[in-house]
């Protein structure tokens, strides 16, 4: 089974970095859409591939470009997560996830995966490491039942947190994938 992490393309909150980090629900810029379209052209997706997507506008737009049939699942368990984890840093508005009700309203027919847990406030962004590991292990167990290729469309910090959880060591911000970056891991 292959787990493939994809980082969203260039987001609107990065146009005037760091001045626009407090933009609510930033989408992809035209450049970000071009990055993801290029990634789509270079990739061969099948109907058996499963896509899990963070509940942010920029990751959902990424999924919609890659998966034109909108056959993906939105889950807060791959939402933005700060890396390295530092609860003393301020919460960035750009990392606010959509609430479950807004996803249902704006993205009709898209499946949601939350294991019926109350995890929609800040998502996984600043939860304590033990709770994050519990949520992540639940998601990984669910993923292992699905098989085939699983794509996770997410954010640099989240991807790095999952890579550590999957056994990589001594990762830093220098290991971030960057815009439209891809990381593959066999499980």
Automatic annotation (TrEMBL):
Transmembrane segments: none annotated. Pfam families: His_Phos_1. SMART domains: PGAM. This is Histidine phosphatase family protein.
